[in-house]
Amino acid sequence: MTDPVKNRLQDNVILIAGAASGIGAAIARRCVAEGAKVVCADYDLEPATKLTEALGPSAFACQCDVTNIDSARSAVDFAAKKFGRLDGLVHNAAAPSTSATVVDLDESAWRHEIDVGLTGAFLMSKFAVPLIAASSGGSVVFIGSQFG
Length: 148
Known about the structure:
Elements: E1 13-17, H1 22-33, E2 37-42, H2 45-55, E3 59-63, H3 69-83, E4 88-91, H4 107-134, E5 139-142
Parallel strand pairs: 1-2, 1-4, 2-3, 4-5
Helix pairs in contact: 3-4
């Protein structure tokens, strides 16, 4: 009997923004375990590359600043060119964690949270959704931060 979870995402291509560590890395590991091919996009390329090396031939890394339109487009294009299509997007990118409360958070940190969480989600979706729709549909998942 085959394990239905093991192959649930078989051959799906999933782009994960904010994949280098934490929740994003856990999502990438799980997707690969379930048969997906993943592109681990992150602002910090080095840990994303280390993760994909550990995940094996179904995973590739690319640098991506989700707040920059050209960088977002480039990450989506990289995934599509590497695998020939795109079936899903996970927007998990988040600004560096701060221990400030909403009362103590300064305006520049707040704007950075908004740029990464909301503008980043918009930009990644802007380029990914047409490719996902062209591949007979798929999923877009947004993960929000404490301030977003």
